[in-house]
Design a protein that fits this description.
single chain; D-Maltodextrin-Binding Protein, domain 2; Dipeptide-binding Protein, domain 3; three-stranded antiparallel beta sheet; 14 helices; globular
């Protein structure tokens, strides 16, 4: 088997049609291109239910308009996912209602699902303090920005969402960015909402700590801890302790009794003889505040969710884990740090001579050794 890297979609399409390559898997063809290829002689298209997830991340920072739960719920009710799946994605996706795919043992089916309901969305905006300023007139209730990648499909999706939310009084500005710039803005919380497809991470309950556990994202705190970690001379530690304590005293991190207890214990140690222990305590605080939540770009914070995630990590009993994950998912669904849109289909386009195609929901390539080729 030879693997050929072809970065351009039109070139991939041309090489499939000419027979220079035998198959392309999840090659990010436009859905309409996939349909067209499926109608060509000598080409076959196989669609399999996927487990990856397309979603909107919402900025929950205190300064964001989306820090208001009712506004987030209104946005969720304002989006007609079925229209986008059918008309734009050409039914090459299935509607998502949770982070985990529905077949997963830990997926809770009884969560709040935000089916399209524009009238309810408008009522929620009223309750959130954003009444319609001019009835059916052109003035919006509020203005937000949605960030996407530069791919045409992502821009098209954002454009449809923009039009759907305009009908409930939300004006969206579209911002399409190259990947590096986009992820830099997400890391700095310089967005209202973003669209991404999550690949692979949502196929294990580990996704809950990765996405939903709070994470103290403070460059000032990270810099203070870096200096503290690098300093071994006890005489040079007190100013760093003072700086670290001052940052933590702002209590900008998600509430944690364990963290608060460690901070209080560190504050009680004042002598040079205790410097090593005080340093150890602050490093432990840093680990507790930053080790989880690596993809919590939304700045989501719920101390209950944090505690449930840790509780589930510490139990080996499947039934106990399921119960914990159930209440966790119900809570997150109500609080809406993300809006789950769809699970994109796994799409394989191949020459007709390729046989025994057995796609897996994970999108893995494990099916490749089982393929057959007619000569």
């Amino acid at each position: 088997m030879h693997i050929k890297v072809v970065t351009d979609n039109s070139t991939r399409q041309a090489e499939l049609m000419s027979g220079e390559v035998d198959l392309a898997y999840n090659a990010q063809f436009d859905p309409e291109t996939v349909r067209a290829l499926g109608r060509r002689s000598g080409i076959q298209v196989k669609l399999g239910e996927g487990a990856n997830i397309g979603y909107l991340g919402l900025n929950l920072s205190p300064s964001s308009l989306l820090s208001n739960q009712k506004v987030r719920q209104a946005v969720a009710y304002g989006i007609d996912r079925e229209v986008i799946i059918h008309r734009l994605l050409r039914d090459q996706a299935r509607k998502a209602g949770a982070l985990l795919p529905p077949e997963h043992w830990a997926c809770e089916p009884g969560v709040t699902v935000y089916d399209h309901d524009p009238e309810l969305a408008k009522r929620l905006l009223d309750e959130a303090g954003f009444p319609d300023p001019d009835g059916e007139g052109p003035q919006p209730r509020l203005r937000l920005t949605i960030v996407t990648s530069t791919t045409q499909l992502s821009r098209n999706i954002a454009s449809i969402i923009q039009d759907q939310l305009r009908r409930i009084g939300i004006q969206f500005e579209l911002e399409s960015l190259e990947s590096a710039t986009m992820f830099d803005k997400l890391a700095k919380a310089q967005f209202d909402m973003y669209y991404l497809i999550g690949l692979g991470f949502n196929q294990s309950p580990d996704a809950f700590q990765f996405v939903y556990h709070s994470r103290y994202q403070s460059p000032e705190f990270a810099d203070a801890i870096s200096k503290l970690r690098a300093t071994s001379d006890p005489a040079r530690l007190p100013p760093l302790f003072t700086q670290t304590a001052s940052i933590l005293a702002k209590r900008e991190y998600c509430t944690s009794p364990e963290v608060d207890a460690l901070i209080a214990e560190a504050a009680s140690l004042d002598s040079i003889a205790d410097a090593s222990e005080k340093k150890r305590l602050y490093l432990k605080v840093f680990a507790l505040l930053t080790d989880r939540g690596g993809q919590n770009r939304m700045r989501y914070c719920d101390p209950r969710v944090d505690s449930w995630i840790v509780e589930a990590e510490r139990t080996n009993d499947r039934a106990a884990k399921t119960a914990i994950y159930s209440k966790l998912q119900k809570t997150v669904a109500d609080e809406v740090p993300q809006i789950y849109l769809w699970y994109p289909s796994n799409v394989l386009v191949a020459r007709a001579r390729v046989g025994n195609i057995q796609l897996e929901p994970s999108g893995s390539w494990y099916f490749i050794p089982k393929l057959t080729l007619e000569q």
